[in-house]
Known about the structure:
The complex is a heterodimer of chains A (121) and B (136).
Chain A: H1 3-25, H2 32-58, H3 65-87, H4 92-116
Chain B: E1 3-4, H1 12-37, H2 43-65, H3 67-94, H4 115-129, E2 133-134
Antiparallel strand pairs in B: 1-2
Helix pairs in contact in B: 1-2, 1-4, 2-3, 3-4
Amino acid sequence: xxxxxxxxxxxxxxxxxxxxxxxxxxxxxxxxxHFVSLAVLDVILLVQLVGGAVALARTEREVEGAVxxxxxxTVFLVPVIGAFFSLAERSRVGTTILLLAVATVAGLELRLWxxxxxxxx
Amino acid sequence: xxxxxxxxxxxxxxxxxxVYGLFAVAATGRSAVQLGMEPDRAPLAYSLSLLAAILYLxxxxxxxxxxxxxxxxxxxxxxxxxLGVLSVGAMSYLATDLFPDKTVWSHFGQGYGxxxxxxxxxxxxxxxxxxxxPVG
Lengths: 121, 136
């Protein structure tokens, strides 16, 4: 788990959330730009999934391996599932779903950091 | 008299299914880890984690299935969920010795951004909104 990747995920999540909140206030459906930002986020999460798995194999730390990997996979899947749900509701509901997905990614990312640090969650 | 059950997984219902689905996964995962690693450490907390996981799974499934039965069962599951989060939330502050380890509902769902407290209210509001409407 590299610190900068963790920081980038949180920063992109916050940026995407800000975009979504603006459009939610404007009562608009999710825009293409949101889906692009979510795709960028998901590519970073895929890098994190691979990088995290490699780091887990190499580390000497006491990390709950199964929990760590399941979080890595879940955090990668959430934006994908959220996007599909959002595409089915082309209204502010869809925008809300994307916002929930991004918030979930940020929340899971915080948990991931704790798990990597070996703290009991 | 024929009555029409509105679909439960469309409109705001879809957002609700998304969040309930996430919590079904989260609670099931937490429960599996707790019971798989050291089931004897906190039997009460772990049983409640399992109960929460089952309720979230039932609610998600019923919302997706819809229909009159789905609406009723979802109502029962969400009501138990509300009672669960309120009682476990209160007990986790009052009787800390009963909860050496956390559940999804501990401290009113603090570890999950208090969403577990909001969710049953949103669920009940949605079920009220989608009550059967007489046709014709």
